[in-house]
Amino acid sequence: MLPLQLLSIPLICLLWPQVGQSLVTTSGNFTADGDIRHFVATPDAFYVATKEKLYQLSRDLSPVHTLKQTGVFTGQSKAAEFSRTDGDSWNEIFSINVLLPFVENGTLISCGVTDSVCGYCELLDLANISSVLHREHILVGHSLHSSASVALLVAIPRTNQDFYIMTAIQHHKGETPRCSNGAEAAYLHDTDNKHGNGIFSISGQGSNTVFRSAGDVDFVDAFQISSVIYLFANVPFGNVSRVRLIWLEAQEKKTDTMKSLRGVSLPLPGKEGSILLASSVVPSEAPPTLWAGVFHADGDPSNTLLLLFDITPDLKMTANNDKDFCSKVNCDKQNSQPKVLQPLKVLFKQTYMTSVLASTQGAWMVFFVGTADGQLIKLNVDKNLRATCPTYLYRTADDSKVFSAMHLEADGKHVYAAFSNQVLRVPVSECHAHETLDECWSAQDPVCVWCGVKNSCTFKSDCRDSDWLSFPDDYQKRKISFTVTQQSDAQIRLDVRTHVSRAENNSSFACQFSASSGELCSRAGPSPTFPQCTCIFSNATLPPDRELSVTVKFRLSSMMTFWERITLMTCPDVKGSPPAVLCRRCFELGCSWSNGSCSWATAGEMNDQVCQAIQSPMDFPKPEISSVSPNVVSFYGYNRAVLSGRNLAAVTRVRIHTDMNCVPRESFVWNNTGVTLMFNIPAIQGKRPVGLCAVLPDGGCHGNGTLTYTSLPSCTSVTPSSTWSSGKRKITLVGSNLEGVGGVLHSHSQQEVSPPTDRSSCNLTYMTPAAEGAWTGLPSYLSLQVANETLACPLSIIYYPDPHFTSFTSTRTGEDVRVTIEKTSDKLEMSIKDVTAVGVHEGKDYPCVMETKDTDNQTDFFICEIQNVPDVNFRQLKVLYGDQTVTLQNTSYLLTLMLLVLLLIPFIILVVVMVYRRQQKQLTMKMNKRVENLELDIRNDIRQGFVDMQTENADLMENVGAIPFLDYKHFASRIFFPENEALMASCMQDVGQVAVKVHLDKACQALSELILDQRFLTCMVHAVEEQKTFTIKDKCALASLLTVALHSDLSYLTEVMEVLLKDLMRKNSAAQPKMMLRRTETVVEKLLTNWMSICLYGFLRESVGQHLFLLVSALTQQIARGPVDCVTEKALYTLSEDWLLWQAQDFTALKLKVLFAVGNDGKVSEPLEVLALNCDTVEQVKEKILTTFKAKFGFPFNGPHTSVSIEFERNGIFVPLDEVDASSEVIGEVTKLNTLQHYKVPDGATIKVLSRKNPSVSPQSSLKDDQNFSGKYFHLIDPDVDQDRGKSPERQKLKLKEVHLTKLLSTKVAVHSFVENLFRSIWGLPNSRAPLAVKYFFDFLDSQAENMKIPDPDVLHIWKTNSLPLRFWVNILKNPQFVFDMDKSPHLDGCLSVTAQAFMDSFSLSDTQLGKHAPTNKLLYAKDIPKFKQEVKAYYRQIREQPPISRAEFYNFMQEESKKHENEFNEGAALKELFKTIQRYFSEIVAKLEEDGVSGQVKKQLQTVKDTFDELKSCSWTSSNQQSDGQNK
Predict the structure, then answer these.
(1) What is the pLDDT of residues 1464-1508, one digit of tens each?
(2) Taking every pair of C-alpha atoms in the chain, what is the biggest distance, in angstroms?
(3) To 5 degrees, how large is the angle CA 1217–CA 1221–CA 1224?
(4) DSSP 847-859
């Protein structure tokens, strides 16, 4: 047994307080088997007690030892020992009611009761709780697990080893616990055995070792400071409760301690009664003793308040004379009323607070508050007891209660809190998340400072031996404030005060004031003294009626500087309306408000609160709010809420506010009818009630609405659990917090939201969406749409086929008709609520009231009654379910008709058989003949295809002459603006302006400077992207405008793109990282396309361009070798099955001798041999002639093919050839275009080319200019009209598309070498080095994947593939007109698409198994793709192994690119177009800047840009009016 002397060492009591969404990153957690009852801590470990287990945890909450609390008693009476057993052989549970760590001698005291023993204590080894050092039978504390009983260790002053254990026990009259020491309220137990009655004896040193309560009592908290014990309790006071504080002086004798009892009352202001829920003393080394308590008014447990009291003990009061407590036998003789302590401040109001923990950080107090609905909140309070906006550190998805006590880590960086059966280690702040000094200061977090050495926001304790900067000891809204006064000597005095705190060892302080004209201040001003600087300057410095921007730079040390930009103006010149807005503007300029106007700072009131009292001159009726629907939502918010009231017509926004120093949230309104309006309820961090008011155009906010934020909704059951395929079945969801659900989603139809038809907190009804047949019998899983989030619901609904209603019968009962509807039984379990019936008679509907449903022999019967219908026989009935209607016929009426039909059937069959036999013989003969012809045609087509494949010589002409490259300006413009020629033209410089640097006007210059602020630019992009009206085309245009506007600074454009890409990666990393950059759905994705085009233009022109042009030329020549339908442009030789002319008839190649008419005297040129086909139209022949002419002589013929005509020499006479003439074949209303075969032009014929003398005589230069060209004419594909097939026997031949698929392979073989050369020029590495941009960007993707800890290497491969091959090269491969001065036909586009698909398949990671039904564009290159994939892998590997490129080297490359193409784009035009977007979403951009905490100076700069553009518009309008007036005169 442990020596009893060890227990005289001091004992220290550390009280300790489910789980959901962490708003900061938690750094440890532990889950116990059962709800937590006790949680205590030592400097090295934690101890958690549940009903059946005791856990020992490390500081990071890792389990060290576990001790079971189940077992059996062995031995007799007082000598019996509790023995723990394994398995199910136990019959006792040792329930711990007191758990105290004994740090000095390394033990843990555990006391409680079992099922058969009234009191039992164990002494455990603190380092290993599995080791039991001592056992004793005694009741210490309450015999039941009670949250209204407390225990603590009392240290005796003036001694080194004397301690008592005080237990304050809940006591209610009328309750008789099974085990009890008596009716006393508090006991003092020994901690040693010096009296010989056991370690925890209450005897010795006098008999009064207890004190009593006069009535019922619930204890809340107890602690000791110096020699004073503080004990807090709730006691009855008449019909209400009141909170009592008891002071006891710790004396060596227990009886003396009890006799020192003094008490005071702690009231709740304005309330008769109150109840204390939790408390915490504010740590302090000197008086006064501050204490915070969580109170609620008696009878209103949800409305809780955090109050601060000064509880410094008044030891001059008479001892042991309290009405509620005494150390005597009878307390009734004491009638003195207790002294009342008034609270210093109500710090915080929040629903359902349950716990509080106080700490200090410098002059600030920091409170950690837990709530019954699972929130952990941090509240900072300054030295003036002013609280900042609360920070929500953690919140549960459900309403798991925070344990009653919490603990702070020794270094103050983490707080430990318990929820149900879980313990969490939660950081008190995330200082590193504040990336700039402004963000670090604006966080108003006492534990965070801006560290000079690290140049980052860190914990104050982590910034040692360095200068640092933080916010001051009192709450401030801004980092600086300033005033402007006018002195008597025509001088202006500017006083600027910084609201910052700094390291104590920092003594230097300096300021520098500068304006656009240079240094601002004269040297006569006073020297700066922290925290204030003064600047004296002349009155003339301030421009009249205009603002002056001043930059103030503060230097706190050599490593700690910051600057702020302020705006000054001559105060009396500040004028305008409305007055309230003008007043606020006045204070923003450092002036004051006096007598309804702006004046110098010394002439009036300097408190901007005066602006709130100014009445607006706008005569708006004050809005009144009567309701908000819904008025209970989750913390994700709610979309399309409805606000109702009066006088709402002028309301522009709805403001959501709290009673704390938090920035209100505002939402714009729509569908405003004057009595109702719609708005979106924004998401917030916490769960609490908030206020609503309606904002008018003058800024006033009126009305008083309420809204409650709660936990996320959850669903537990669904009724019914099935629905029919057509949907619209009424479904009821059961769960919690369902009033904030905006809709229900089904897994089979994620895009269709089913809105609720009715909802409450626990129930929600909606109509199911329809499902296709593939979902029959399968479950469709449910999700809840909550604002902009989707929450999984662990329920599903099974879809079955629609119900099958077969028939109905009707029976008359008096004047009513009873209807029985028959339906085939199924798994839908339909009830009478799902079905509606209507009887139909002579076109009029009669409702049938559903009564009951029966089931018999696989048939369901729905019985309804049509009332008050005498003399009406219903032969037709409509059955309605969901949105479907089924019409049934009366079975008795149909019986007679069916009998008649049955009698006629034998006669009908006889006639049909006779006719069929006669026709059969005739059809058989015709069919046999057609089959023979068909077989012959197919054999010929297959043989010809085989011949083409084997004789394909690929003799394509590779000498295509000079390549018509576009210059950089036109190339980039077509990439930037592929679908907007007007924007393309406006953003390109004219030829005459290329060498001239265009000077921007004032507005464009201001906007150009603004977009160089990276924070603004990224916020602006995010703000407009969040708008639903900002389409993908708008996003692409915005990206291209930014590219043009920043083309002169490509290095900065690269930085902006990297920031936006990081934001996109963070957004997609948790959802679908492999989908990133696959589509162009964001601004940054289009920006990346533009960036790649700029960086790779040189590589494209030097290495890839020639191969691309050769491929395009080869495809064009190959297509022209066979028939091409002039109307549809389909061809026999192609790469695309969609463009295959499989309907083509037989054709013959012709060699034509072409003469060109020279002059007007009939002379002709030497003959030119031109290859053509007998199926070519006249226009196609012209094109081939002119193409051959250009290839032969190197220059084009004079004029396009529409400006020339051709003639055919027949018998010495030249006959004109026209596409359509009187001899053209007409089928129905469609005309066939004339071909060489139509004119019977033989091989070797002579053709003469003439220039048209009067081409303008014809109203159109070509038949293709006709809008209905494809409807009026046809060429090789017959029109879909009836005709006499006998006149054209060649058209009777059956053509099968599959027979001609070999033409695709022939074309592929012909151009394959060009495709290979092109692909290898793209992924080849000249000199074993990739282009700088490719290497730089791939390294950027590698680093981001590493930072985001993405384990899947396929994700990185896909990112690289989506960013370079898919985003740039495929765009070039499919659009050669972006690179060359050429036109692209739709047919050529189809062939290039097949090539581009093969190119992308080479980068794919998956191995696609191709079968006979696979698309031909996949099959065509199926054997080449594996080889290409190996080359691509080598390409990616070589880039990865290439030495990295430094940021400086790449930025030098970007600067050279900027200089190389300087002045090629109209930057001013791009900036003006860019401002249109900013103006369109101006308010949304401002809101985003405020949300992201961007400095006020940026918002002022944005407003200046807007005002400057508006001024230019106004000046332009005025100037145009003046010119118009001058012309009229």
Answers:
(1) 888 888 898 899 999 999 989 988 888 888 888 888 888 888 888
(2) 149
(3) 105
(4) EEEEEEEEEETTE
